[in-house]
Design a protein that fits this description.
With about 800 residues, the chain is α/β, with parallel strands linked by helices. Helix content is about 50%, strand content about 15%. Strands 1, 4, 7, 8, 11, 12, 13, 14, 18 and 19 form a 10-stranded mixed sheet that branches. Strand 16 and strand 17 form a beta hairpin. Helix 22 runs parallel beside helix 23 and helix 29 crosses helix 30. The longest helix has 29 residues. The chain is globular. Bound molecules: ligand 26Q. Ligand 26Q binds next to helix 6.
């Protein structure tokens, strides 16, 4: 590795400023300095990327291709400097040139090319794949606009466009020589020539895909991988001379399609809508990616027959499912293989990760859309579907099973079933979730091919989510574990358990948390003008807004607490600050109402003198990766309260745990594994278990019974109807819980059934907080046992059990 000195960095920064912006350091803006810094680090990474590629090719290594519609990268400057081992030098160089290094890092926009968990997971995995020296490439779309920015106006969410590329493009290297062409629509013509059947797509609309590469540096290695982001351009510029021949319209159509495809990230999280543009986005990035992989493979090996020995394609949920028919198309139409050979290679190359069991998130595309937009792909899907159906019939002889497992059924294409048929592995993202896939959602498929179904519990990049963002805790860990070994081996964190009875260690831990709370309060004051009470418990729920995540349950408990305080001003002895952060999908009306409710309640409590220094509710605007990075180290309580069986894994829960927050949660997703290592005594569990949820639904859940039985619950619920001092009534939410609305059942996510148990868990938690020694002990145990949630562990499992590639 190149140890870059502060002075060398200073010189490079000045020179980049000069050549790119024509400015001396003292004239440069923070944005320009940020871009200059990016260019300097990019140069180092580019050289290493070339070396990495050479080694991969020379040693004929198997490569991993990670396809995802989303990569929620956040900021990269500090991360890259950290991994390259030049962070202290870069900070010093920036200061020498007259800047505050913190301001330069903050000038970088988040690359928000993702919605939430699934996108952030992909970003963490890029870091680990690189750190473990795995030759890997990420592929996605170079969206012009990332996830919308959220403003709160009069308590309500307003969405603003996110032009992240203005500064964020500093990390992108265009590779126009590796552009690909992707075809849509047209008609399929088959003809025989030289004894071969040829297939051509005529009158198609063609879009050019241009790759922009973002380099990814690993920690403690020279290995550099890339994230390849495809931008869309019209294949044929509009030529007025074509007008008379009717070609003008086609060119204009190509222009319009190209402009639309890479324009914007769909802001829906855990929800599927059958929009034509979304399908085009999927095929666009899948086709460009497969062509790019195949071209490079042919370059090295001269044949595609060994494709599966040298490549593995991991798909992040079903969004890139079209890789399966697209590989078949390339193998058959372009390389002239027969069906069986093409199928054999495809089904040994693709692996699928499922991230959700919510019915509304499972992708099903209308057959007519496929047929019209992707005629050749549709033919191939139909053939796959027919052969798959035959297999099911031969295995089960049961029409009900055929119907459930079919790929094309009722004029729809079911993407998950296509993945199961065409993939070599299917995995869930936590133990519980994988069990639900095996025993419920994909039960019949699992019975037919049990070896395909696996579990890989999610993990997070602990270098970013602990070491980089929480320097105080990082220092303590290094002191106690005798160095920085934990950075390459998160299981070293276990050593912290030995200090659970060491008062000085526990005091240091408490002091670190206190400082982080103050830093966060300063940040909140500066950016939002909110005054946080740092003597209060910081009790946090940050994640996308979705009914199954039950932010509304949290709100009901706060209302109950507030009402207790009304009856008895001494009801709260421990000050309590509830922090929320959440974006709602723009079309998800109920989610937006819940955001407004949180703001109404916050306003009410804020204006009630009884609550002063006791109770506070804050809605943090525009929750995003960079905000999470200041919030996680300051958090004391992590709310993970989804209805059991609904949250596939959760990864925010892991970030809180690593930073020493205590969890109030249900036995859902990865909380179950958290509980396995922590035990009842180090976690505040509550609520129905997944099997009890299923049983209650089975017998017929009537939320009104809980409402009638529990006066506290009834009073809190009733407050929704009356509303608060801003005069807004939330009767719609009240009705939704008691009556159901618009086809959805009453209280679909069982808030009322879990309410009493939840309140009791919050009370236990608050009582524990009154005993700082015990609290800090639990906090230390959380950090010590969080090592299993490192992405390095998860990636090693993918490498060993699914990809079959060597790793560090
Ligand atoms: C699909 C079709 C059309 C439009 C949008 C979508 C779409 C987009 C995003 C469907 C789902 C998503 C995102 C899902 C997601 O983030 N799931 C989360 O994945 C995490 C990583 O595995 C888990 O930890 C979370 O539990 C899971 O909710």
């Amino acid at each position: 590795m190149t140890p870059l000195t502060t002075q060398a960095l200073e010189e490079s920064l000045s020179s980049k400023l000069m050549t790119n912006f024509g400015k001396a350091p003292e004239e440069a803006t923070e944005g320009e300095m940020m871009r200059a810094s990016a260019l300097v680090l990019r140069d180092i990474m580019a050289m290493r990327e070339v070396e990495t590629r050479k080694r991969t090719r020379l040693n004929r290594k198997k490569q991993v291709h990670y396809l995802s519609m989303e990569f929620l990268m956040g900021r990269s400057l500090m991360k890259n400097a950290y991994n390259l081992g030049v962070l202290p030098q870069l900070k010093e160089a920036l200061e020498h040139l007259g800047f505050k290094s913190g301001d330069i890092f903050e000038a970088e926009p988040d690359a928000a090319l993702g919605n939430g968990g699934l996108g952030r997971l992909a970003a963490c995995y890029l870091d680990s794949m690189t750190t473990l020296d795995i030759p890997a490439t990420g592929y996605s779309i170079c969206y012009e606009l990332g996830l919308f920015k959220q403003k709160i106006v009069e308590g309500q969410q307003v969405e603003l466009p996110d032009h992240w590329k203005d500064l964020g493009a500093a990390w992108l290297l265009p590779k126009p020589a590796e552009a690909q062409r992707v075809s849509f629509g047209g008609t399929i013509r088959e003809f025989w020539n030289d004894g071969h059947l040829h297939i051509v797509n005529e009158n198609a609309t063609t879009v050019t895909a241009i790759p922009y590469d973002m380099e990814i540096a690993g920690y403690g290695t020279d290995h550099v991988n890339v994230l390849r982001l495809w931008d869309a351009r019209p294949a044929n510029p509009v030529d007025m001379n074509l007008f008379g021949r009717g070609e003008y319209l086609k060119a204009a159509e190509e222009q319009a399609m190209a402009e639309a495809i890479a324009k914007i990230l769909y802001p829906e999280d855990n929800h599927m809508e059958g929009k034509s543009l979304r399908l085009k986005q999927q095929y666009f990035f899948v086709s460009a990616t497969i062509q790019s992989i195949c071209t490079k493979h042919l370059d090295t090996y001269g044949t595609l027959k060994n494709f599966h020995e040298k490549n593995v394609i991991q798909i992040n949920d079903t969004h890139p499912t079209l890789v399966i028919p697209e590989l078949m198309r390339v193998f058959i139409d372009d390389a002239g293989m027969n069906w069986d050979d093409a199928w054999s290679i495809t089904t040994q190359s693709v692996a699928y990760t499922n991230h959700t069991v919510l019915a509304e998130a499972l992708e099903r595309w209308p057959q007519t859309l496929m047929e019209r937009r992707l005629p050749r792909i549709w033919q191939i899907i139909l053939e796959i579907s027919n052969r798959w159906q035959k297999r099911i019939e031969d295995f089960y002889h049961d029409p009900a099973k055929t119907e459930k497992m079919a790929i094309v059924w009722g004029n729809e294409v079911r993407m998950a079933n296509l993945c199961i048929a065409g993939g070599m592995a299917v995995n869930g993202v936590s133990g519980l979730h994988s069990d639900i896939l095996r025993n419920d959602v994909f039960r019949d498929a699992c019975n037919m091919e049990p070896q395909k179904f696996q579990n890989v519990t999610n993990g997070i990049d602990h270098r970013r989510w602990l070491s980089e963002i929480n320097p105080g805790l990082d220092g303590l860990i290094k002191d106690l574990t005798g160095g920085d070994a934990y950075l390459s081996d998160a299981s070293v964190l276990q050593k912290l358990d030995a200090f659970a009875d060491d008062k000085t260690v526990l005091d240091r831990l408490a002091e670190i948390k206190r400082k982080n709370k103050e830093l966060f309060a300063v940040h909140a004051k500066r950016s939002r003008g909110v005054l946080l009470n740092t003597d209060a418990i910081f009790d946090v729920q940050v994640k996308r807004l979705h009914e199954y995540k039950r932010q509304l349950l949290n709100v009901l408990h706060i209302i109950a607490l507030y009402q207790r305080l009304q009856d008895n001003p001494n009801a709260i002895t421990q000050p309590h600050t509830f922090l929320f952060g959440a974006k709602a999908a723009p079309g998800y009306e109920v989610a937006k109402r819940i955001i407004r409710l949180i703001n109404s309640l916050a306003d009410q409590i804020d204006h009630d003198p009884i609550c002063r220094d006791k109770l506070q509710v804050v809605f943090l605007e525009n929750y995003r990766v960079s905000l999470a990075e200041v919030l996680m180290p300051a958090s004391e309580v992590s709310q993970q309260i989804s209805t059991a069986g609904k949250e596939a894994s959760g990864t925010g829960n892991m970030k809180f745990m690593m930073n020493g927050a205590l969890t109030v949660g249900t036995l859902d997703g990865a909380n179950v594994e958290m509980h396995d290592v922590l035990g009842d005594e180090n976690m505040f569990l509550f609520g129905l278990h997944a099997d009890e949820v299923a049983a209650l639904r089975q017998e017929g859940y009537v939320p009104l019974r809980w409402y009638n039985r529990d006066p506290g619950l009834r009073q809190a619920m009733d407050a929704l109807r009356t509303g608060f001092r801003d005069g807004v009534s939330y009767d719609d939410l009240y009705q939704r819980l008691l009556q159901g609305m618009g086809g959805s059942p009453a209280d679909e996510y069982l808030l009322l059934a879990d309410f009493a148990s939840y309140c009791e868990a919050e009370d236990r938690m608050t009582a524990t907080y009154a005993d700082p020694y015990r609290w800090n002990q639990i906090s230390l145990h959380n950090i010590a046992r969080s090592g299993i949630f490192a992405a390095d562990r998860a990636i090693a499992q993918y490498a060993d059990n699914i990809w079959h590639v060597p790793h560090k």
